[in-house]
Write a structure and sequence with these properties.
43% of the residues lie in helices and 19% in strands. The chain is α/β, with parallel strands linked by helices.
Length: 132
């Protein structure tokens, strides 16, 4: 089984990683930790600071997973797509079995709306999506 977690430096993504970590242990699954960098105006021109921040974030996640002996891969995507499109495409390309995405709590009215990335992934994913 392959589990993909949509990851970045936000607390919602950390909760998603924590959930995916537990699932990977339970099912002896391979975990893919994917960070998608969305460039301004859909272009692939990114500042080095953003790339380094993303790499450091993935490195920290990888170190903690390695300490627990969880089989994993990290991937930093810079395709110039929106993050949602990028994550769905990655899931298709790697034949991912389950996607885990973090969302944050909203007000009563806001509960009807998710973040645009999470919403896109939930609506377009080729496999089941767990929202944390």
């Amino acid at each position: 089984m392959k589990i993909m977690v949509c990851y970045n430096e936000l607390s919602e993504a950390q909760r998603a990683l924590d959930y995916a970590r537990k699932r990977a242990k339970e099912d002896d699954a391979e975990l893919w930790v994917v960070y998608s960098l969305q460039a301004e105006n859909g272009t692939a021109h990114l500042y080095g600071v953003e790339i380094e921040k993303a790499k450091k974030c993935l490195e920290t996640a990888s170190d903690s997973l390695a300490q627990e002996g969880i089989a994993h891969q990290t991937y930093l995507s810079q395709r110039g797509l929106t993050a949602g499109e990028d994550l769905v495409l990655f899931a298709e390309e790697k034949d991912i079995d389950e996607v885990v995405v973090g969302i944050h709590k909203h007000s009563r009215l806001g509960k009807l709306l998710l973040g645009s990335v999470a919403q896109y992934v939930i609506l377009h994913s080729p496999c089941p999506v767990v929202s944390v």
